[in-house]
Amino acid sequence: MTLKKMLSRRFQHKAFGHSIRSATLATEPHGVSFWSNTGRIDVELEETGSSQSFFIKVISGELGRNMMYGECESMRAIHALVPDFVPEPVAWDTYTSVPDTHFFLCEYREMMDEMPADPYPFTAALAALHQNSRPPPEMEGKFGFHITMYSGNLPQVVEWEASWETFFAKSMKLALELELKAKGPDPDFDVLVPILFEKVIPRLLRPLESEGRSVKPSLVHGDL
Length: 224
Prior knowledge:
This protein is an alpha+beta fold. The chain is built from 5 helices and 7 strands.
């Protein structure tokens, strides 16, 4: 089945369910991704006759399923706090006709390559995200997330930790383990990694949580 057919069929069947009826006007590949197929879907909403566009990612396998779930949940968390900062997520799910293929659907937004002439709206939204976000009440003051997140196709540490130093060290350790797994042993790592964990991280981060100081857990965007 072609990407175009997958985009069109699945979008009509499940993303809107039975609450919104629409006619698909166009589906086409859009954007570039190392790990998934990406596309744009243009529809006409039957109730109003207005047109609307959506962006979709499609990827196969259990890893792909987890990636789509993670992206949808994280974007929902960001969008709930700062709606203008990210596209509005619509749904993630699995194709009924291709059971091992999964998708994430969100609002379509035009992207630009150049820097904005006025950076204030962007930086203000970023500050609002960092200042206004907080963990769920049962995890108050802790760092983590409720499901596994991914950087590209690599899983990230999400287990809740009360210490930023501990959370950061665990995240760095996993990143280095994945690097060694992908590229093999490196003698420089044998020298530098112990120094990183025994000296560098404690010296830089421990003072932030010493003598009454603390670090506020905040939502962060993985691309920034």
